[in-house]
What we know:
FAD/NAD(P)-binding domain; 2 domains; five-stranded parallel beta sheet; three-stranded antiparallel beta sheet; 15 strands; elongated
Amino acid sequence: MKKGLQKNFRCGTVVTSVRKVSAESISSHTERDLQENSDSLWNDEKSTEVFQVDGFVRTVTGDKEPFSIYAENVVLATGTYDSPTWLGIKGENLSYVHHKLSALEEAVKNNSIGIMSDPVLIVGAGLTAADAILFAHHCNIPVIHVFRRRVTDPGLIFNQLPKMMYPEYHKVHQMMKEQSAACAGPDECYISLPEHHVLSFGKDKKCIFQDKNGYQKVYKISMALVLTGSNPNLSFLPNNGIDLAMDGGQPVNPKRNPIEVDPFTYECTQEKGLYALGPLAGDNFVRFVQGGALAVASSLLKKANKNPP
């Protein structure tokens, strides 16, 4: 069923700045447009501050057409995949080493890797690494999985998830325990190397690992996915959004230092009218995003003096 939302999307848009400005500083023409074209609080009570959103739109000719819009409320839903974490080791900049799951999906789509390929190396023990393992497993692509922690480490995300609620991740955790290189399991397409770290990537696609005792192993791989985390790019916010975080002295991090929000509305506690969704607010599961979106929608509807759904 069509909802008529297409007119509200602006593809090819890059936001460069979001900041609060005094409503008095907005021209009377812009203010009149805000009043006429939105079901906002402008019609009921005078706002003293609004958000000015600056950026540019890429035209078909490749030019950058600047824009400025004003809004009483802004929702941050940019995700946290802008700046992947690097290992900082030799060879990490080689063409077969990637830092996003989409690289594996693209390689499978282009048939550049398959069942008969050398194993795909997946580095990391988080949910993104688990998603990569599940995708490779579904495509029957052999995997070498390297991670620093013990499989039984309480800090490992898989040890914190209810088995019944997350059966797919429990499956990955089970493979991590049963399919180690020292103890071959039933699945020949997956090898787990717990308490290992990568020393270097070679131009010949040979990768050197080291275990906790200093013993080294060498494997030939087809491609590597370093999925050890990422950070959002919030350069469009004042002070890179640091002032919005749980710890206002540290950069925003989806796991350790998310943006502090009201748990019922997802409105930033440090900036009224600004909302944050998904990993920015600490919701690192896709299945949680809907709840946050509904919370924001409900809050905005209440602000506009409408009945919530």
